[in-house]
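G., the chain you wanted modeled:
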Amino acid sequence: MRILVTGGAGFIGSHVVDAFIAAGHHVAVVDSLASGRRENLKPQATFYEVDVRDAELLAQVFEAEKPEVVDHHAAQVEVRRSIDDPVYDAGVNVLGTLNVFEQARLAGARKVIYISSGGAVYGEPVRLPCDEEHPIAPLCPYGASKYAMEVYLRVYRATYGLETTVLRYANVYGPRQDPHGEAGVVAIFAGRMLNAEGGPQGTGLPVPRINGDGEQTRDFVYVGDCARANVLALDVGDGGVYNVGTGAETSINELASKLVAVTGYTGEVTHGPANAGEVIRIYSAVDRAREGLGFEAAVPLTEGLARTVAFFAEQQELP
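Predicted structure as tokens:
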């Protein structure tokens, strides 16, 4: 297939590009490089440095590539920035995404895979695990913008006949991760445990700090598993919404302990004030993805953390 991946030079998007290429597809990438990195891309991918908010340039890319499938990862992903500047968040995540949907329609694309956030759209859970029918109650503009475009995509499916799949990621971590997304704690802790006093590289970073008591829980899913879910979604045109996670919750204290063991860190882990408005417990129900996509997370947390730490240990620039 001819596939266009927006945000394909970013942390998660670049792994999705790798998976599509490995499966034998022709892949083009649109990325503004605001947070993505060109060096994340394999040479087989055709790259366009274009912001999804630029409708004119985006139309030129669609005209040149004529994608059969559009996989939309490009987004403003910083929760704190969405709270500080909700207009900017909506400019990227609402208007930019609408540009992508519209160009997909005009270019005759068959399908759109849209990446949403299971960690942000559900808000504080009323039941656990959160299944796809859980009430939508985001606590931040980022979650609101991601869900708004799920609604738009349903309209595009009903009105224009696009095949669609929505993937609601849990807290994604892994190599190439930046510290700004929902699961940025893994990148931050890995970098600090490697480089704070007591770490194997000891370059003087501050010690790891847990916000609050550390008993808040998340569903941490390895980025390679998310990439595989996108490949599986290529041939599923039922308009479904699927959680992509592990179905298990891990506390931040437990995560820190696992990273201490993986990195060999011997320093302290401190605690600071809790983040205002933070969800306390959340993890995803994964039955629908198992039945509808044939997806099940395959990388255990300890193994995924080891791969992530090994990646950061080799990098010159640390999170």
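The domain at 174-217+248-281+299-313 is CATH 3.90.25.10 (UDP-galactose 4-epimerase; domain 1).

Shout if anything looks off.
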